[in-house]
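Notebook, p. 212. Picked up where the previous page left off. The plan for this session was modest: take the two constructs that came back from the sequencing core last week, fold each one, and keep the raw output in the notebook itself so nobody has to go hunting through shared drives later. Recording the first one now, exactly as returned: residue sequence, then the structure token string.
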Amino acid sequence: MQLSLMALLLSTSCLIPAAAYAQTVSAGEVSASSALSLPGVTTAPSQKKVFKSGNTTRVLNRKLLEAAGPVAGAAQMLSYAPGVQITGYGNTGASKYTVTLNGVQQGWGGFGGFTGDGAIGVTLDGVPVVDPGSDLWQSNMIPQSGMIQSVTTTYGPGNAADRWYNNLAGTIEFTPVQPTAKPGGDINLTYGSYGQKNIEFDLRTGNYHGWSTVIAGGAGDGNSFRKSPDGFQSPSNDYSIYLKTVKNFSAGNFAFGGYFARSAGYRVPVIPTSPIPGVTISGNAGAPLYSQQTSGFYSAPPYNYYEKFDTDALWMVFARENIELDDSTTLHNLTYYENFTRTHSRLYDFGSVGPQRYEYNNPYTNVIGDKLWLTEKLPFNTLNFGGYYIHTLYNSRNNFYNTVLGGNKGVVNAGGKIRSSYFNVDNFAMFLQDDIHPVRALHIIPGIRFVSFQTSYSDSALQDFAFAPGVGLSTHCVLDGSTATSGTTQATDQGSSCGSHVSRNGVEPSISANLQVMPWMALYGSYGEALRTPSVGGGGGLFQKINPTTGYQLELGQYYDIGAKFHVENGRFLHHFVAGVDYFHLRYAKQSLSTQLANGNALFASGSSIYQGVNMFADDNPLYNLYVFGNASFIDAKYQTYITGGTSYGGRHVPYVPSVNFNIGAYYDIPIGSMLLEPRMWYQYTGSQYMFNNNTGAPSNRKMPGYGTLNMSAKLTVPVTLPYVGHKSMDVSLTALNITNNQYNAYEYIGTGGYFNYSGTVPASGFTYAYPGAPFTIYGSVGFHF
């Protein structure tokens, strides 16, 4: 199949009539370059802006994003930035990934052991897309890579005017394809390993009487690389669509847009690395023991023994205005609404036949926000001052039930476990920032923010669920420790029966500076403090299991870095060269550490941690037809304190922070007549990581090994002549990931066997579970650009 696919794609190019020489064009690149001259659109910082910034900023352009593969999503694209580690269970954008930036976590991939939940800000076209209620961002809410023209990572809290409510460790901006001055479009079709199919497109109207619109989208589906003995392939699917219109007029511009994404799929479980006595792949005696050593490295249980289906969706609409009040003053405003939904259903769970055999989890969040600020340009400084207000309603609804006992998705049975907690969250901030530039070579940006976080909690499990005959609730109140029961038999309410309200405020100072010591070299540094609310919701935690009046405190990040940047636009040997290296140090204090378990419960701890290391990056075209890139990080992360169950684990390493990460690659353009062939090769390596131990609820001293993947692709760009549109281009490409078919685990943790209903003797070292990384995969793509 792979050879025939290659032949088909290459032979297709021979059917296209030749015209003038075609420059390589990727979906999104046309938009990115054309949008620069159109006011009101969102663009990534230029190399010059990165060079002059007082913060560490890494911009991944389309060439770098394509290294993630044609069916990649947000997390896979982001993995090429220095200091970034991703962990997931799939091989496409439909799968959920946990992302760490400089060791600090964002996202929920369905497994625990990560601490520092939600302390990274994520934006899409400048709009925050981290759920303010749960403080989590699901990576599969940006499942299509073709509509993203750039990804910009800012390390540390950043400047005061650019922050939102959780930028403690950094900010990640996904910039979609933007409206352009000239009309055009792109369409790309992909087919590859495990039946993966994908289509993505963008259409741009160009500028018409000051109006310009873009619509972009994509859809994909396919199967997992995990293999089940009954032939079930754990399929997944995703789609997203984005629309934006910009209107320019004499006094400024305004834009409005919308985005919708939905990703759904069957989530394969972890697999033991070595056999556990009595735990078989099908649950039947005599069947092969379920482990990488016995049933196969990529094996998975059959459908009727384990089934979990997960759906995530995001609705977003926004409007943005930039009004020039006079020659030096500009008014900016951003208004947005978002709806986050998740549906998680479990019908079979390793033979469990108890009262919590099934699960139906359908939380949701509604968000409305507005950010208003002014920019005042003065001869030697630029002031930004303003603020934002965001209101959020988050519900954590979940039901563990068994139909044999009279339960279903909306009905509670005896011995079941439910929750329907409501969190009303109000985030407010005011900021003042001054960019002082007395000379062109020096920028100093002090800033300060006042932030306020208010959370009101109430429990509505009794009102939101029906109950089987005779069934009542076993409840508790975290404020006074009281408990109560009702009914002949009881289900357990994971929430707290008594409502509560907490308000916390604080001040966040920051400063950054950049000094251009030579035309091609700048020295820079920054210091910033950031506050955030600890995560809530899930199976417990603050308000539900922990008294918020005594256990609630704002988490604190104190970050500084110092480094050097280099930029050469057109030198003798360097062209479009940008590079940087920095040392960073983050103290993450007053942490509320939680780890979710498979049964809906959670482990809790408190502590503080130190993250420090070096990040570096470089891009260049040393030859007109050669593009090279490299990114690397070296990180050490340890807990100063980590206390759970009265035991201290201070001094332990923070789990799942690789000691070293790097990627390096080269693309080479080869003209062939009027066509252009571009072979590419790149390598990505993730270093060893310490593991989490579910037995102790704490980090362990054991490591999982590092791993690397070698990848290659080839793209042939062909000029074409199309009716009514003239000379355009098409390309055919073949992308092969992990070409050496390296077998590696992307994630491992230590457990007791309870996940598989094991009741035997557990060795002192516990059992090791894993999510394997994707094996060799290959994809063929055909793209049209007009």
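Okay, moving on. Second construct, recorded in the same format:
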Amino acid sequence: MRWLLTISALTLVLVPVVGAVPAEAGFAASAVAGGGIAGAQPVGRPQAGSLSCTGGDYYTVESDGTVSLVPSNNGTPVYHGAEKVFRFKREGKKSKFNGLAIGSNGTVAWAFNKGDSKEEEVGIYRWEAETGEGERVFLSELPDGQFGSPDISSLVAGGVNPSDPAGEYYFGGFVQKKRGTYFTTYKYSGGRIVLVGYVQVLDHDSDKGNGDLVFSASGDMFVLWNDGEGDARIVPVRREALAAATGGVIPHGDISKLKTGEGRYNGLAFDSDGRLIIQYDKSGKSYNYSIDPDDGTTLSDKVSIGVGDGSDLASCAAPPTLYVQKDVVGREKPSDQFTISVEGKGGTPRSSETTSGTGTGIQAAIGVFTLFKPRTYTIKETAANGANLSDYSTTLSCVDAATDEELPVTRVKDTEYTFVQSGADNHDAICTLRNEPRPKTGSVSWRKTDTGRKALPGSAWQIIPDAAGQPTIEVTDNTGDAGYSGRDKDTAVAAFTVSDLPLGSYTLRESTVPEGYVGAPDKHFTIAKQHSASPNKLGDIQNKPIKGKVTWVKTKADGTPLDGSTWTFTPTNPSGNARTITDCTSAPCAAGGDQNPTPGRFELRDVPYGTYSLQELKAPDGYVKSEETKALKVTTDGATVAVGEMVNQALPQVSWTKTKPDGSLLGGSTWTWKPSAPAGPAEEIADCVKPSAEKCTGPDKDPAAGKFLLKGVKAGSYTLVESHQPEGYQLDPTEHKVEVKPTDAGKTVNAGAFKNQPAAGSVTWSKVDAGNGQALAGSVWTLSGPAGGAGARDLVVADCVEKDAASCSGPDKDPAAGRFKVEGLGLGKYSLVEKAAPSGFRLDTTQHPFQLAADHLDHAFAEPFVNKRASVPRLPLTGGRGAHIFLIAGAVVSAVAISTGLLRRRRHRNLD
């Protein structure tokens, strides 16, 4: 008997596989149910309504017309998972249903029954979800064709073209004619059966074959054939060829040849990822498993699905497909040809074709291929018949055949690309390799370096053609990063090679300069014929580092430049070591520092590009250090960055005055100035009395007598004490507290005006009788003031003999007879001399000098001054004058003496 493998077509509808795991990872996980054959676990499925187009669901039909849903997971059918859905209602005497097809997203199903008639008639059956009934819609003989009368028993497959608005049912079977095996294609259209044509699947006769029929979403037809001995073929028919068919031989595309497992297949179908699902019978049971559509490798376990007479498979899934065509825009040489190819699993070629002739436009095509998702496929072309692909520009573009949506491709090499279908949606991809002869071109190369020939990253360029109307070429540095799509062919940093430049003259312009450098000047170059083989080498194009000047001025609060400051100059971006800048106040200035010899004015030269901070490290003597930090940036070569004035407030000053009691200034004092918080050493401050402040070399900077000024006093607490008073004045030991606050910067703190009282000394002496040491009253003295001094004068001091000192109205304040005390004497040298001796005593004219000083205010003559008695004249004993004459004379003299004494005392009182 003749062996027939009854396999029907699949309707290909784009349905996402929910939760699918890519089959490239290996076999799907399997399980063992009830001790049976391993398979995927069943899931809940709808029992009524439209047929399921979910995930890996597909359907099997038995010879009696029973249609069952078979669930699968990543190509692995569920063990005994077949669930009866409906049954075609047979109208003939026998049931030989086959050619199962599903259309309209599961709302319609088709099949034919070869057992409806003893004659050569076939019954066409249609099931509708709306009614839930599967009934015969037509019974007819098959039309004759160029290969003679058909044999109904050869019918094995059926399918619905999803791109056909009418949803017409295609079916057919294999015949052996004219040294070949053909698939005779029919369709039920307009209430009749029409012969579409013949598709050759083998170039020899074979009565072993059986197969199936499927459509892509865009209407390409695939005839599936196998011989039951491990050989299988997928024969594609483009939708254009199918639409143009009129009953003759229909052109087909490249045939995919697979090596499959053993088994007499009676059903073939694709799932949505492109796996080919196979059904065969063994020991009265139907087994299903999936294979790789590229090479036939088994992808899943062989699972008993729970039916025993399966005759065909069908699904709602449409596999992704690929069609590649070659568009020749022109040829560099008329004899140039091109070979296009597609490689699938492991780089295995799926097909290839070479152009011929001299024509342009579409000159070769390969496919249509079914694809396995998400496998990567390689599309490439190679030169043929002496062509050189470097003479051509090659591009690849892929679009969806139904929607014209552009599909992504990845360029691997100039003429090699990869294409992957992934995601939920499947596409019927049409990819076009386009060749266009390149204009006569050459290349140019250069390096970007600094002046030390070190490579500089970060530059970008423009190549500007001299010829009018040609576009400017933008060039960025190719550093080897993935995804670079610019013109630079050299992956080394800062090295450039640009090819495909038409012959001619150009200007190379640096459009983006590496940060911190001066742009290079334009460079003119020419691309000549020799540069097609070797680039025009422009060599190193150097950038000079940006360097500028930085200036600032250190000033007082009034804007006057101020010398003596020190600064910290720190690079912040890029970071670097800080530099200490000291004010240069006279030429020549030390290299690397301040180059302006003017005190207080700063200039740094050759400062590299970048940002910096400037901060005062040490203020000039007598000034408060600025806490301000200046930020600056050098960006332009040769430019000056003027920071401006940096003002220092002077340290506080402290002033005070030394005055007489009447408030007039008094020079000559010395002071002790001592820090108490923070503590520090004491300093002696002597009054500077000079013609000008410049002459004051000590701490006191005020040249006026009695005026004091301390400069550069730091904030803190101090004590001020007079350590030496002016001559002739009393020392003031009072300790004065002085507070100097930080807010006093630039100000003068007035410590006060401090008075000195004149110094008051005294002198004491005594007068005694030389004979007995008894005190003598009545002497008068002359006290001469400081010799040569401005206040020198003679003071007459008469002995005061009173009951108490308060009664002494003259200079002598000691009321005791013969004892003297004169007070309120200024400091200096004095002389004391007796002016009148006590009555009856001889005058002593001896000078008694003494000196009063600050450390010797009271002078006491230790030894009393003595007077000797005067001699009395002796009276004659006889003769001469009588004694009364002498007594009268003595009385007169005494009266005169008393009068004279009274007059002198009165005069002295008037002088006082």
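Notes on construct two before I forget. The radius of gyration is 65 Å.
Flagging for discussion at group meeting.
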